[in-house]
């Protein structure tokens, strides 16, 4: 009997610093779990990173570190492709064609563009504006069916779908229309300092996020300092108790416990005990990841071998699609 073709997954992460617990829970942690059921491609999105000024030496180092960290988080190169975006030039080739199928008004509505251009007012470059087009190219170039991301990427995914539909109707069916794959729990982990805001590695307050490479003492300290409220009851209510609810979400994602179980576990106990338990659950999850990360980072030959093979394979798939798009677009073929 013919084996059913697996659906394809593509996702990416920017190498702009060590990943936060938000990146991990909202996206990366799920990537490894999808490898058996899907054909997965994961990339370190270094082209996206330069929409904000980067120090070249840091970017190079962080790209390598991000790759090692993804492997440590469970991406298995025997099952998935892992590559660095800039090593597959076809993404930028497709991006140009797609940018001509994207309206200025659509890009102007992107909330991430609005946020980032306000934050980096001295460098509102064209790349920051057209970033979602490159992201659409990343996805569409592999005809990905599903894109596992956190909730903050949903709007970019919708744009990718619109652009794909537009191209398909103008030039005939070419791209698969991708669906977002957003986990029910943990799709938006909030800042520990301002729980109304998303946890982000670009936050100026280092106490607002936990990094995957934070040591146990730092994790304990950051959890203890996390903003909660004054009623002292561990209860899930995202609207009225955003700080406690965020910690509960983290704890639930780390332990697999349901919210009502957590409420019972800490009933009659103070926030101190609760925060300590949250910290210990994070430490238990991250310690093996950190050990594996160090091991992989020290094995340069292995890491570079994985990335080289990943890029070659990805480039093979991507090139074929770009050829098809160029042909359909009307570019003269020799
Ligand atoms: P990036 O690098 O900002 O984030 C990587 C992934 O982490 C998720 N995430 C979160 N999830 C839950 N809670 C949070 N606080 C949190 N912060 C971040 C993001 O939703 C994302 O899934 N543009 C993308 C990278 C990219 C991409 C792609 C993704 C480039 N091309 C193609 C998917 C498909 C980005 O900047 O993610």
CATH architectural label of the largest domain:
3-Layer(aba) Sandwich
Integer tally of domains? 2
Share of helix, binned:
40-55%
Query: What would CATH call the class of the largest domain?
Result: Alpha Beta
How many beta-strand runs? 5
CATH third-tier fold name of the largest domain: Rossmann fold
| Unique bound compounds | tryptophanyl-5'AMP
The residue-averaged pLDDT reads 96
The low-confidence parts are none
- As a whole number of angstroms, the C-alpha radius of gyration is 21 Å
SSE string, helices as H and strands as E: EHEHHEHHHHEHEHHHHH
Count of alpha/pi helices = 13
Strand content: 5-15%
The rounded distance between the terminal residues' Cα atoms is 41 Å
Give the neighbour order of strands across the main sheet: 1-2-3
Largest sheet: 3 strands, parallel
Structural category is: mainly alpha
Give the overall shape, derived from the CA principal axes.
globular
CATH superfamily assignment of the largest domain?
HUPs
Any key phrases for this structure?
mainly alpha, Tyrosyl-Transfer RNA Synthetase, three-stranded parallel sheet, 13 helices, globular, binds tryptophanyl-5'AMP
Structure description:
The protein has a three-stranded parallel beta sheet. The chain has a two-stranded parallel sheet with strand order 4-5. It has 334 residues and is mostly helical. The mean pLDDT is 96. It is 54% helix and 7% strand. The protein folds into two domains: 8-187 and 300-329, HUPs (Rossmann fold, 3-Layer(aba) Sandwich); 206-294, Tyrosyl-Transfer RNA Synthetase (Orthogonal Bundle), CATH 1.10.240.10. It starts with 7 loop residues before the first strand and ends in a 5-residue tail after the last helix. It binds tryptophanyl-5'AMP.
């Amino acid at each position: 009997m013919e084996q059913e073709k697996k659906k394809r997954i593509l996702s990416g992460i920017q190498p702009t610093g060590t990943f936060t617990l938000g990146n991990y829970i909202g996206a990366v942690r799920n990537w490894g779990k999808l490898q058996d059921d899907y054909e997965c491609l994961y990339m370190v999105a270094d082209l996206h990173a330069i929409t904000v000024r980067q120090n070249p030496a840091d970017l190079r180092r962080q790209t390598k570190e991000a790759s090692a960290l993804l492997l440590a988080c469970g991406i298995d190169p025997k099952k998935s492709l892992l590559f660095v975006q800039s090593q597959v030039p076809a993404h930028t080739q497709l991006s140009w064609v797609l940018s001509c199928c994207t309206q200025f008004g659509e890009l102007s509505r992107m909330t991430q563009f609005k946020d980032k251009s306000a934050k980096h007012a001295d460098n509102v470059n064209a790349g920051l504006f057209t970033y979602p087009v490159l992201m659409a190219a990343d996805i569409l170039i592999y005809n990905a069916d599903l894109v596992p991301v956190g909730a903050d990427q949903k709007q970019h995914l919708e744009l990718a779908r619109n652009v794909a539909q537009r191209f398909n109707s103008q030039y005939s069916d070419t791209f698969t229309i991708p669906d977002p794959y957003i986990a029910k729990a943990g799709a938006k982990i909030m800042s520990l300092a301002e729980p109304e805001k998303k946890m982000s590695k670009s936050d100026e307050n280092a106490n607002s996020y936990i990094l995957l490479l934070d040591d146990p003492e730092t994790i304990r300290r950051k959890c203890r300092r996390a903003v909660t409220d004054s009623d002292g009851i561990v209860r899930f209510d995202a609207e009225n108790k955003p700080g406690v609810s965020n910690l509960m979400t983290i704890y639930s994602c780390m332990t697999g416990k349901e919210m009502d179980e957590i409420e019972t576990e800490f009933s009659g106990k103070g926030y101190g005990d609760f925060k300590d338990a949250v910290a210990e659950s994070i430490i238990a999850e991250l310690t093996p990841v950190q050990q594996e990360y160090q091991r992989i980072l020290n094995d340069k030959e292995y890491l570079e071998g994985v990335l080289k093979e990943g890029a070659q394979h990805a480039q093979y798939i991507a090139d074929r699609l770009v050829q098809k798009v160029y042909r359909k677009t009307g570019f003269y073929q020799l």
